[in-house]
Amino acid sequence: MSRLRRLDVDDLRILRILLHGGNLCDAAKANCVTQPAVTQRLRKMEWVFDESKIVKLGGRTLTLTDYGVRVAVMCSAALRILEDFLDEPMVPQQPTRNGSDPEPTSIRDMERPIPNPPRCA
What we know:
mainly alpha; Arc Repressor Mutant, subunit A; two-stranded antiparallel sheet
């Protein structure tokens, strides 16, 4: 299983918050989790990124390492791309043939439950 599959959007948000001067408390509040949960996610991210140190602890202060800054910059850019993609219109709104609901104009408009979601093997 690819290590990258272990990352999720909240992990990217944590790194972005730390990159912009936030601390564990800020990252925990933004993701509605506890500070120990953020620390656990950071350890998981270090495993995902080849067991390289992303953060260092200096007393009660947590800072990104040089490698952590590189990772955070890339993850922040990826998150920004995803956010921009979700906010941009897909196509101009087209009237429907039968007068029902208009076609979706953005990805967010398409967020409907899948009737029969595929099962994981």
